[in-house]
Structure formats: structure tokens, C-alpha cells
Here is the input.
Amino acid sequence: MTTVPAASARRPANSALRRFLRAPSALIGLGLLGLLVIGAVFAPQIAPQNPFDLAAIDVLDARLQPGSTSMGTDITYLLGTDGQGRDLFSAILYGLRTSLTVGVGSALLAGLIGILLGLIAAWSGGFIDALIMRLVDLIMSLPSILVALLMLALLGRGIGNVVLTLVLLEWAYYARTARAQALVERKRDYFEAARGLGLPTSRILLRHVLPNCLPPLLVIAALQVARAITLEATLSFLGLGAPVTQPSLGLLIANGFQFMLSGEYWISFFPGLTLLAAIVAINLVGDRLREVLDPRALK
Amino acid sequence: MLGWLLQRVAQALLVIFAMSLVVFLGLHAVGNPADLLLAPDATQIERAELVARLGLDRPLWEQYLNFARSALQGDLGRSFVYNVPAVTLILQRLPATLELAFAATIFAIILGVPLGLYAGLYPERTFSKLIQTGSILGFSLPTFWVGLLLIMTFSVSLGWLPASGRGTTVRVFGVEWSFLTLNGWRHLLLPAINLSLFKVSLVIRLTRAGVREVLPLDYVRFARAKGLRRGRIVVMHILRNIMIPLVTVLGLELGSTIAFAVVTESIFAWPGSGKLILDSINALDRPVVTAYLLVVVTLFVIINLVVDILYRFLDPRVREEASA
Here is the structure.
């Protein structure tokens, strides 16, 4: 009995995947995203220089144009160097690593908490439901930057604190969707059947209701990753996010900002381009996911 | 109607109360200010005296009541950095932020309504699809990134517009305003465009969706059948009906525009309250951070409340629904 919904779900999932790949925009997004993820994961192997190793950095090489070669070593700086003589290409790979980790990590954690609370709200109803949903309303009504300012003023900068802030901002979106979806699923026959069999609540919620709620939650997750990366970059740009020792893309852009006014554009521009590529790629994938998975989007 | 109004006001007060509690617990009660204020060689007695004078020996709820009482009287402590009352500091900087936020909202209407109208009236044209794509970009691009691009293009490369500051200001009612001078406008233009980016996209989407929704309705078709000029139908029949949701959403957005001005102010060195809060967070100037958060949240809640009430008066359908 328990395998029935899972087995019947496999076929639509397969066709959904095929439909997903039919759109050229999704393929472009997926390809770009794959490239960026590979770059981030294998940063230590790909990068010509470890940007955090002070011994590897030569201050004499500071603010070199893209394509110049180092004075001391034989490294060619493909994208130029920053204010401290760091190879920008290497710094971008490591920064991308931080940005993607924060984005994906916070989205996963928020998803876990949000879905759980959403299911609990749908299941229990009454006071607990009202309490959770009012909290959701409160979080969603406040401007995200205001909540972030408050949190980071309290906690101080740091990767962990940024992730915590993002989780606080994001869980509400999952919770609302999970609850709405679960309320629909509650009225289905399979739900009654599982209840009739006397299965424990946790098993019904996690093994029967949750898998059927997943498609719209996946769409939310994709868009929340993009949102998290954007907000993290913004906070780091403002000097409230990533610490100086672990610069994300946002902080790299901020570091180059002062040089931009004197025409040394590349220090800000290339990290900015990478950030743009990441956000656009995730949005393309997320949009296509929504078209494929959201029944309301089908005309 | 009255019941709804009371409920809505109570809700607003609850949000402010919750926020004040969070701010109090987070910024006020954590860490002992006595450690900051006392000399390292202070005796135990001096310490106890100071703790008693600051009220730190009272139970937490009593401390909160004291905090709330002085907050209601407009006293949130003195800035450690500037040594002036924190609230005064915020209120001095707020007009610059409001000026920026209003300019951004006006830009959003000037740019967004015509573009959205075009995309809604001619959805199949290439330019309409371009507008659609552009509005998606406007939603997903980080504000600070676009701000940098604007500076790079218009300030550094072309040299048309200044990249920072407010320019020449004129003093009216004791407050400095940039929008009254040509030089001030040149300074205001780029930051306002930057801040309006998200709202332009929003207005485009709302207008386009509204036009698509209204266009096939009977009253529009009737107006057409009467032989009215196309321009008149668009302005008098279509636009008028879209205006209500548009004004509502833009009103609700005003609060978050003020909050998001932090980013724009930081890029363009616009001396508003957002720049102040960033400097204060970095300088650990707690009273100013507390004051900023409370003032902006209160402002935000009041704006939302007023817009909500206005919306009920503007749209007869909603009004009847509420009284029914």
C-alpha cells in the first residue's frame, strides 16, 4: 500500500523531466549552472592561486589589467588582480564557492524547517495553525533587508550568521506552500485509506502527504536559492555579511568598488558578472520548473 | 467597518510591540552596558551603584517597561558616536531617504505604466516581449549590482551624472531638499532610478496584467462599439480601473522602499538614514541602531495601515465586502 503513490508518481516525474529539458532556456540555465557549480566545487584544483594564502600573493601585482603576467611568478592573471594583488579568477572561484554554499545551505535548512512547520500547521489546525501562520505573515510582511539588518546588528558578521538570517527569512515561503498543499492532499482518498489502516501520523505526513506536496516546494526552493544568493551578496556588499577572510562574490564586488571610480573596472565587474550568471541561471531553471510542475501554469 | 478598523489597528500595534520586544531583548538586554561605561579599575561598590542607577538590577519586564516608556516619549538614548539623541539623528537624516523613496516611486509610475500598458495592449509584439524579459531581470538583479553598472556607465564612462552625494540643497521648513535645484536633481537621478528598478518591474507586471484582464470585459467592448476614440478608452476606461490596485501596491511598497534605500544610499553615498544605520552598525552605536529599527518599523506599519484603509474607501467592492 505504501509503495503505490510512490510508484505512480515515478511516471509523471519522468515525463516532467523530459518536458523540462524541452525548453532551450532551461538547457542554457542548467548548462550555465553546471559550469558554475563545477567551478565552485573544484575551485582548489582549477584556481591558479590560493587567494587566501598570503605567501602566494604578491602586493607588487596589485590592480593589474586582465591578461597581464605576474612580476614574480609565471601566473597569467586572466581577469586581472585586485587591490592586494590577488588573482581575480581564483578569488571569484572561491567567492562563488562561498556564495553557492550559503545560498543552497540556507535554502535547504529553511526548507526543512518550513515544510515541517507547514505540515504541522495543516495537521493540527486551531491555535497552533493560527500561531504558525501569523508568524509566516509577519515575516513575509516585513522588508527582508530590515529583518537582515536587525539580525546582523545583533549577531555580527559571519557566514553562519548570514545563513541563520536567510533561514529566518525563507522558511515562511515553504511553510505557507507546504500547508496549502497538505490541506489539499488531506481530502484525497489515499489519505483516508492510510488513516483507515491506522498508520501513525508521522508516517502518513512524511511518506504519503509530503511526496505529493513536493513539486511546488521544489519550485519555491529553486527561487529561494536565487533570492538567498542575491541577499547574501547584498549584505556582504554592505559589509554585514561574509567576513573579510572568506570573501563571497558580494564582498569581492564591494572591494573593487573604490577602484571602479578611477576606471579600474575589472575588480568589481568580473565578480559582478559571475553573480549575475549564477542568479540568471537559477532563475531560468526555476521558471522552467514552475512551468512544468505547477498545474496552474499549464494552459 | 469599525470592527475591521479596530482589528487592523490592533494588528499594527501588535507588530510594533513584537518588534520593540525583539529590539529590546536583542540590542538592549544583551551585554552589560555597565562594562562599557565603567573604568577597568572601578570598585565593586561603584559598579553596584551604576547598575542600580541604570536600572539593570530590576527584573527584565520592568526594564522593558522603562525602555518602552522612554521610547514612547521619543527618548531612545544618546548616540555613542555623535553624542546627540539617537531619535533626533534619525529624524534629521530621514528626509533625504524619503526624498529618494518618493522620487523612486514617481519614476516607477512614469516608466512602468506606459511600458506595462504597451505590453498589455500589444502582447504579441517583439517590444512587448522585451519589456516582459526586462521586468523579470528587474526582479532578479541585485539592486547594488545595477547601481554599480549605472555608476560605471553614466558617471565613469560617460561622465554625465555625479556618482555621490546630494548636491546643492535648499532649506525649506528647516529641512534640506535636493529636488528643488537642478544640481540636486542631477544627483538624485541615478540613485532614484536605481531604487526604482524593482518597482518599475512591479508596475509593468501589474499594469500589463490589469490591461489583459480588463480588455475583454463588456464595458470596454461597449465603449469600443460606441465608437469612442482608442486613446479615450485606454485613459478613461482601462487606466482608471487599473489605478486602484496599482496605487495600493505602490503604497505598500513605500515602506520597503524606505528600508531598501539602505543599499542605494550606501552605493551613491546618499546621506540618508540608511547610510547612517550602516555606519552605526559598524561603529556598534547601539542607540542609533535601536532608534532606526523602531522608527522604520513604525513608519512601515503606519504606511501599510493607511494604505489599507484608503484602499477600502477607494474601491467600493472591497468596502461592501467588509461591511457585509
Remarks:
- Residues 1-10 of chain A have pLDDT under 50 and may be disordered.
